[in-house]
Amino acid sequence: MANCPKCGAHLRMIDWKQRCPHCKANVFLYDLQERLMLDADKAEVQHYHFQKKWTVSKRRSSARSSRSRAS
Ligand SMILES: [Zn+2]
Prior knowledge:
Layout: H1 27-50, H2 52-70
């Protein structure tokens, strides 16, 4: 059976794809976001290998700007 991806609470089938009764996380969306992020990582790696030369310099500048936004 499934467990809540956020708090780890055991979920009944009726809770799955709905909200966790313990932490109120939207279980379905939480799982979906995780998968989308994994897919995005994979896509980024493939893109990196496909267009290595110009992507390297582009990634450097975008990493710098996102880091300054985060802090
Ligand atoms: Zn939970």
